[in-house]
Amino acid sequence: MYRSHNCGELRAADANKEVKLAGWVQKSRDKGFMIWVDLRDRYGITQLIFDEARTDATIMQQAKSLGREFVIQVTGTVIERESKNANIPTGDIEVLVTELSILNEAQVPPFTIEDETDGGEDIRMKYRYLDIRRNPVKNNLLFRHNVTQEVRNYLSSLDFCEVETPYLIKSTPEGARDFVVPSRMNPGQFYALPQSPQTFKQLLMVAGMDRYFQIVKCFRDEDLRADRQPEFTQIDCEMSFIEQEDILQVFEGLTRHLLKKIHDIDIDAFPRMTFDEAMRRFGNDKPDIRFGMEFGELNRVAQHKDFGIFNTAELVVGIAVPGAASYTRKQIDELIDWVKRPQIGASGMVYCKCESDGSFKSSVDKFFDQEDLKKWASATGAQTGDLILVLSGPAFKTRTQLSALRMELANRLGLRKPNEFSPLWVIDFPLLEWDEETGRYHAMHHPFTSPKKEDIHLLDTDPGKVRANAYDLVLNGNEIGGGSIRIHDKETQALMFKHLGFTEEQAQEQFGFLMNAFQYGAPPHGGLAFGLDRLTAILGGQETIRDFIAFPKNNAGRDVMIDAPAAIDSAQLEELNIDLRASK
Amino acid sequence: MYRSHNCGELRAADANKEVKLAGWVQKSRDKGFMIWVDLRDRYGITQLIFDEARTDATIMQQAKSLGREFVIQVTGTVIERESKNANIPTGDIEVLVTELSILNEAQVPPFTIEDETDGGEDIRMKYRYLDIRRNPVKNNLLFRHNVTQEVRNYLSSLDFCEVETPYLIKSTPEGARDFVVPSRMNPGQFYALPQSPQTFKQLLMVAGMDRYFQIVKCFRDEDLRADRQPEFTQIDCEMSFIEQEDILQVFEGLTRHLLKKIHDIDIDAFPRMTFDEAMRRFGNDKPDIRFGMEFGELNRVAQHKDFGIFNTAELVVGIAVPGAASYTRKQIDELIDWVKRPQIGASGMVYCKCESDGSFKSSVDKFFDQEDLKKWASATGAQTGDLILVLSGPAFKTRTQLSALRMELANRLGLRKPNEFSPLWVIDFPLLEWDEETGRYHAMHHPFTSPKKEDIHLLDTDPGKVRANAYDLVLNGNEIGGGSIRIHDKETQALMFKHLGFTEEQAQEQFGFLMNAFQYGAPPHGGLAFGLDRLTAILGGQETIRDFIAFPKNNAGRDVMIDAPAAIDSAQLEELNIDLRASK
Predict the structure, then answer these.
(1) What does B533-547 look like in DSSP terms, one character per residue?
(2) Do A432 and A395 fall within a single domain?
(3) List of residues 6+ apart from B55 with CB closer than 8 A
């Protein structure tokens, strides 16, 4: 037995016990006649003491040789400390060492194993196995484990059955790019790694499994944006004999359960907001509602004056930034530059200060008098001391720009509090979205998403207005889950394909497999998938998913720790019946 | 809401309730004036009744149109049945239907959705989504879910943390063949799918995670034998600061927990048997100890007579088949033919009947008298009425042959009872095994497996005799788990590589990555992995893993349901910088 206790559990009540501990040397302080060593393992830190007066000389000598991150095992007696350390749970005691064994020496690590390390992102990723020794990373992984355990226990208690679906499946031309796997046994043929178990979960509903879930890796070969991973984890769920309301109830319940278990936070029924409302009020289909700065539409009060830019705009819209009337010209100019950056793309921004004396001071005073500006304040909910920022232009684009500005300001003002949680459902998403490139409508979710019955008649006349039985669960400005009620009857499916511009042959070719299965008695069904990486990060009060993944890849899709991907040898290529193309 | 109850929950106490049910038509009986329909969902079957005297004529007509596997929704009143059906939990009631809605029609399924179906393996796999509607398959999937939940809860309660390791990793030349994934973003380079998370779990120990587990898919591109899958699931575990005994305790605990929770079976401490003992007593390193027929070595009592075949054999060994003295000459000849098949490869078999009058009758009576044969009976533990079967030849080969015969006879005699569970540990595996092909020793487990300290001195003189800290958990004649204590110090590792015939350069090239990580303070660690597919099958009283996988592949590695693998289009190949080789 290597240890009688771990490094996080000894207390004053254990005084005088003989114990055996093992772990890593966090640090040591050598006063010559006395040496203290902080011994660390996953569970905590325990202070060891070596004392010339009480410790064997050989051990004393050995203790002096200990370097950072050495792995050691000690036997000793628990003694109550004279000067206690209230910062750590074991701070009341220390262990007077009587036996010391160096289990493994360690080279000096390339960065310090401390909560705040001196290692940059790159070096930490290369030595991720050392990075994980640091509390913040280690705790994130433990936290993720707790989240998944709670998810599994909750869903299992509701009769959901976790079913493993295959990883070696078939490539489909629709959607994002697949990772593929050449088959040695079937020359010239390839498996694909699943982008999601969508088809299989729908088949499991046809199969009568009724309530399915799976915490499962998914793969997308996309050009990686910051904080995207080629492999990511979903909590994938599907239910039969349900309507949208049933799904919302179950997964609202799951989210409430997580918030309660993990943060002891009670949240009542989640607000629900239609897609249209979310866009109107927040310019965003995943609004962060932890703070205000809601959009005020100003068309009525700001158009038909002499300010041509507003007059020709489809939408004039503003937000009131709390307490920002005091911003200097320089600060405001910086904000104007910020929205004019290509990533945001506004052509300019109008502002109006709500001064403490009740007056207004705007960048367009030439065109708007105090009465006009008062109406702006009223439309944006601005109070004395606030700064109104106004954008104008095409409606969708302008909303998106103002939403980006709203989030930026919220970050700067510290309004996005990591330990405050404001979930909501965004519902009634459009069924279709217009694709400029192909000049036709595409399914916004996927072609099996069901339209709202009452909107089906609009498919012929105004397809963009048809709403879907599709919903997103939004938490603190992030989409953490989304799904839909699926089409399960032939007639609606045929109608959908027609409106998506598929011929019957094309539909059969691309989706024939699932459609055929549906002919054997598909139940009404629908589901939802959570992004586990993001869900965990947000529940953990953070936004970077990489910090919640044990061995993440970088933005080039590389694992810098193991140096993958890498070349493989020619014999392997030959067996797989493939050749590399000559580089161009 | 599609239903107020599921099809498995109504009881006599629900009589007179108005209920809403939904499900599939299992079957219907039409007596003209009365129609009964068995409505099925995942949870059970409820009988619906349509009665001319009480049911609306339109609904009556609709009910007549219902085909097998139609998906319907009904509203009705629960009534107590006159003739109850004790075979199903809902057998006391039926539902008198007042409203009927056909949610989806169904084509006639290609095989009957019954416990005993008329569909063969191939057709059931092609329509797996219908096969899963059958109770035996559905129950296997639910059973698997329960097993994984119990595993996760048990390990979590012991502070094990489930960590997801990456699926897109790096190909390694050692071991089985990797599946590889061409990287589009890194032309000419490939990821590999993990054969197991071995490296990552050891890195997690270096990272201080202390107790790790993961239920995880693994991939091996091997020529598939019956009941092997290219993707399979492991319960992968690793612990730090432990010795072999700690691992055995924890995972014996897990197995005991599963047997208790799933079958309410209490099992005391698992027997432990060394590899040598298992081979000697059962000719097999995964002995089925639910029954006897232990090996009796006969060298001492059967050699040095005039029977040359025995005299020149390294080993003469027999088993006593209970009650088989009554076998006819034909039956015995069939057994002799059985062991002479190329799959077994014995050149012949000697038998001896233990007759009811206490005499012995053998096929070698010419060479052995009654006194000799009595010694055979004593060595094999044969009783009156038993049949002793004896093989001879090179020790390892002969044991393997006799073990196959023992298992075959146990199957025939019904001694392998599916609901009896006899786990045991097989320990002290050899560290090295001789490879005829390369003419050198290979690591039996893997090169990081630690040798027993007391055997290290044999590495130079008798390497085949060195035992490893390696162990298998065996259940009912199947290896369900296996693992080892790893080497964590440089000196032993260097010694191992030397004896495995690696130069320092080769060792660095193939294992450098992990060895480098070890330099930063590796704790003593070890672990084990269970094969979840097999574990579940055996706990479920079966041996075919395919029956416990939702969507298995066939022996050619194909998913016949989705028809994968398949060709991909040339644009995809181009993006991936690969070409297909012209077929040879």
Answers:
(1) HHHHHHHTT---GGG
(2) no
(3) B63, B96, B97, B98
CA atoms within 13 A of residue B172's CA, in its CB half-sphere: 22
- Considering the domain architecture, whether residues A312 and A430 belong to the same structural domain is answered as no
Indicate if B318 and B363 belong to the same structural domain: yes
B231/A167 Cβ within 8 A: yes
Percentages (nearest 5) of helix, strand, coil residues in chain B:
30, 25, 40
Same structural domain for residues B306 and B245? no
Based on the structure, what is the number of domains in chain A?
3
Count of CB atoms situated within 10 Å of the CB of A464: 11
pLDDT in tens, A22-59: 999 999 999 999 999 999 999 999 999 999 999 999 99
Q: Indicate whether this complex's ipTM tops 0.85.
A: yes
CATH number for the domain that contains residue A44: 2.40.50.140
Q: Least CB-CB distance to A562: which of B132, B156, B169?
A: B169
Structure tokens at B561: 């349901």
Average pLDDT, chain B: 94
Residue A345 lies in a domain: yes
User: Quick one: what percent of chain A has pLDDT higher than 90?
Assistant: 85
Please, is A347 exposed, middle or buried when counting C-beta atoms within 10 Å of its C-beta (0-12, 13-18, 19+)? exposed
How large is the average pLDDT for residues A487-515? 85
Packing angle, helices A504-518 and A490-499, rounded to 10: 150
In angstroms, the CA A247 to CA A239 distance is 8
User: Model pTM?
Assistant: 0.95
* One-letter identity of residue B422: S
> Which residue in B188, B549, B566 is closest to A567 by CB distance?
B188
Ordered DSSP codes for B188-221 = T-EEE--S-SHHHHHHHHHTT--EEEEEEEEE--
Instruction: Kindly state the tokens that stand for B98.
Output: 């007042």
On whether both A299 and A411 belong to a single domain, the answer is yes
- Cβ of B148 under 8 Å from any chain A Cβ? yes
Q: Which domain holds residue B78?
A: 12-104
| Contact assignment for B241 to A568 by CB distance below 8 Å | no
